[in-house]
Amino acid sequence: MGFKKIVSLLLAMALPVMNLNFTGQNIVSAEIEVETPAYTSITEPISAKASGSEALYRDVLNKLYQHVACGWTDYTDTFRTNGGYGTREYLASQGITLTNNEFSYQWSFYESGRTLSQVGYLFFDVNGDGIDEMAIGLIDDSEAYDLYTYYDGNIVHLATSGERDRFYIGAENDVWEIASGGAMYNIKQYYHVSQGKLQSYEVYVQDGANFYYGTNYDKYSGTITNKRSISELQYDSAVHNHIDTPFTPLSSYTPLIASGSCGTNINWTLDSNGSLVISGSGEMYNFYDDVNGVVTPWDNYKNSITSVIVKSGITNIGDTAFINCTNLKSVSLATGVEEIGFAAFDGCTNLTSITIPSSTIRFGGYAFRDTAWLKNQQLLNPLVVVNGELIDGSTCYGEVTIPSSVICIDQGAFMSNPNITSVSIR
Rounded to two decimals, what is the model's pTM? Predict the structure, then answer.
């Protein structure tokens, strides 16, 4: 048999008793035996930090990050008192709904002192559908405390573990569960992930001196589907290969603090580092009207924004989108952005770095007024020209000659400049 940890009764008395009805009776023992799998450890190339998967499971990761960061003091555990652990379907048979807001009670009861560098997450595509599943656990352990998948457009919380119930990531496109109901009562159950569920395909049960094989074990009824007797040697040999890939610590994860939409097909996210990312396709909204003035979806966070990244697919920056974001320092626009709207970055006094692609050929008035970037450009040349458009000449004086390379002149480029005596175009 695999190595077994003996947990003393002093600890066990403080914990709920797992109702594994191998013999139709609740099992209470002077010793609680948790079997640690004697697996053959292998390493597989799993993406420990896939940005697409992080985005997919971001809501769960954000909640986990918050709970760990504050020592789970903000989390109300409802699972430990009612014995809530196991697969989603088993919990449902007990009248317990496993949601994405719930986590294994091991976190708040046993692991509340763990730090962001000790708790981690792991992505793995166990069912081969091209979309990762996610496990969360301790980075120095191989056990998954909670398992998730993506099915039918939703994140599904597959399973949650208890102190006598553990889940592991198998190397044979499966998930396995090791559970114990006492010194001589153990199960090893193996699942595939299909249609948003953990579906059992193999189980090995030790009931005292008796050993059984089947295709499913129902913890609630104690029923083994397709049950047949096996030898102790066969039971001991029923160990699948286990993927031994380290979890990515939460300390390397950057949680979002806000998100929303800023166009018909455009979304924005703001992380705790102050990076606002705009993605999607089409045109951003304009954020100024004569009735309400300037109203942006990130108004409540504008002082937290330090960088703006506009991804491919976006065609414009809306009017007054980032007006008076005084802590904004850098802006990166992907190729495909054609227009920067009126006063889009007006008053961004600390904005020093802007990446403007050659596709950007239209600039609204005052797009960069009072930015550090514009002041630096004016020092290089009082006629500030970007992609053939003269966007600013407010510091020009005397006779001004506009080069023939200028295709158009921005509205307001020379407004309120009393120092110009004449303007000519070559």
Answer: 0.67
